[in-house]
Amino acid sequence: MPLAPQVRGMLLEEFLLQLLRTSGYIPIEASNADHTLKAGASGLEIMGRGTEHQIDAIADYRLTHPFGYRQRLLVEAKFYKDRSGIEVIRNAVGVLKDVSEFWRKGDRERFHYHYAVFSASGFTPRAEAYAFAHDVYPIPLWRSAYLRNVIHALWGIREGSLRRMRTSRPGYLKDLRAVVRSSLRNRARTSEELATILEEYAARTLFDNFLTEAQRVSGALLAVTASGFVIMLVPPGEGLATNDGVAGNIERARQGDLRIHLRTVRSGLFWFLETRAGERLFSLDIPPELFRKYERPDGQRQTWYQAKHDELRHLQVVWAPNGVDGPLRLEHFELSAQWLQEVREGLQRMHET
Fold this sequence. Notes:
Trna Endonuclease, Chain: A, domain 1, alpha+beta, four-stranded antiparallel β-sheet, five-stranded mixed β-sheet, single chain, 11 helices
């Protein structure tokens, strides 16, 4: 397998884990005394009924719902030129089933597992349909404008820039992940640490460029629709990785009458959550399957329209105003009555281009 897509996916996973802190998730960095995890040769492994699975990007949700176990999110990021296909989701479904059935007599704690697959290039229709049918969450990123600079920085990391990475030393990717995770969490420069793993100055420069762009993103929110679809909302970069940008835009969003628009930005098409006056609060990407789900014959057009209208009329968001140690807050965003027609027009534009 080429090294560059693997490294780009790993960096994207670490970036997303830090963003998820704003939505009430705590990244898991070591197995510690957790009986469901173990430290493998290449990173964290999670116990399944049949075998162990290497999944380094894991986060626990800070809220525990009534009549349920603690929620644990397994994160996988794909960074390829082509859209992620059904084989990616098949693997996720298999892992999710296996880890969900792990149980040993005497264990005091269990988890309710969720699996999210993020893709910088989106998903094929078959992959989306299969994911929604098996409770795997496909989250595209390629039409989220405020992630554009991070994704461009990751595209700069190519096979040639990694050719002198010390692949002969066991655990080099594990060490690289640890350095990047620490840098994203603590907003530190990592050139010296990267120099112990990467031998070429060009490679270190590319990694530093990614870290600089990643640290400009002030967080992200996970908005949930009526039937449980998850949409990631990203505020404009503030230059500092704080919640200030998130908090200010949430305050504006509370006023309601929000719209989802597809806008042209630098010759690219991107989705935005906007105020009625056109102020862009968050960028997002929408899985087309969210709309295909409610397709109906012409004789049921009104039912089809109303179902889609209800699906996204309200978005529910849980977020941490004061960071990972502060209390969580629940917000409801209300979209305008015209949101459906505007999104349909946006999808038509995407199809035409």
